[in-house]
Automatic annotation (TrEMBL):
UniProt cross-references to InterPro entries, sorted A to Z: DUF1093, YxeA-like_sf
Gene3D superfamilies: 2.40.50.480
NCBIfam families noted in UniProt: yxeA_fam
PANTHER family: HYPOTHETICAL CYTOSOLIC PROTEIN, YXEA FAMILY PROTEIN
Domain of life according to the entry: Bacteria
Protein name per its UniProtKB record: YxeA family protein
Pfam families: DUF1093
Length: 118
């Protein structure tokens, strides 16, 4: 009975570890921060159905919590608010996978310093 429980526990731990590794590779990444200072570049996309969608493309310098910079590009479905701070998730494989607005007080100090130099 103990061997069965131990085997089952080992199986669950291995599957959980593989699942976490897959999730982190697909959706995780480095947190980077940007400050929106200008409007995005408007891009109209036509779907196969003929429906048109408007995206706004941004290309800018982002900073991680250590203050290291990296050029990033991402899109939004609306023009983002000027002087807004965003936290981006930069995946090694997929690039920027998500973004969310954050308050200036929530920025890491090194990133805040770099963003406010400009």
């Amino acid at each position: 009975m103990k061997k069965v429980l131990f085997g089952l526990l080992a199986f669950v731990v291995i599957i959980g570890g593989l699942g976490y590794g897959w999730y982190n590779t697909s959706y995780g990444g480095t947190e980077r921060y940007v400050k929106i200072t200008e409007d995005g570049r408007k891009k109209v996309i036509k779907a196969d159905s003929g429906e048109r969608f408007t995206d706004y493309e941004y290309e800018m310098t982002a900073y991680d919590k250590k203050g290291d910079e990296k050029e990033v590009s991402f899109t939004a479905q609306h023009n983002l608010r000027k002087n807004a701070y965003l936290k981006l998730i930069d995946n090694k494989v997929k690039g920027i996978t998500s973004w969310e607005e954050v308050q200036e007080k929530d920025l890491p100090s090194k990133a805040k310093e770099k963003l406010n130099q400009n």
